């Protein structure tokens, strides 16, 4: 039997549901992102269930791939342990163009420091 909450969620536009899902995973601040800055990172199966699971942070393309994957598929703890504050901020101008609108909006709404005059024009 469908509950009132299920019915309300089903009535919401898909974009709102996705935004809420991504926003609900976010840490209290970007400073909570304490992931590594160098070396190899192995992503848990619940984040990357197929394809590449080990990323070399010293290779820019692989680092960007890791961040895209974790932003899209990672839970709260994954964000904190796999992403690094300084790397995220440095990569954000390009990274924001490679992720979904819902992920980008959730992060930029929560952390205005990610939004720069350049990124708002993109």
What is this structure's SSE topology?
Layout: H1 4-11, H2 14-23, E1 40-42, E2 54-56, H3 60-73, H4 76-82, H5 85-95, H6 101-110, H7 117-121
Antiparallel strand pairs: 1-2
Helix pairs in contact: 2-6
Can you put this structure into words, describing what you see?
It is a single chain. By secondary structure, this protein is mainly α. 53% of the residues lie in helices and 5% in strands. The protein has helices at residues 4-11, 14-23, 60-73, 76-82, 85-95, 101-110, 117-121, and strands spanning 40-42, 54-56. Helix 2 crosses helix 6. It starts with a helix and ends with a helix.
Based on the model shown, name its key terms.
single chain; 122 residues; mainly alpha; 7 helices; 53% helix; globular
Instruction: Output the strand order for the largest sheet.
Output: 1-2
Query: Main sheet, how many strands, which sense, barrel?
Result: 2 strands, antiparallel
Structural class: mainly alpha
Work out the radius of gyration: 15 Å
**Sequence of secondary-structure elements:** HHEEHHHHH
Briefly summarize what is shown.
The protein has 122 residues and is mainly alpha-helical.
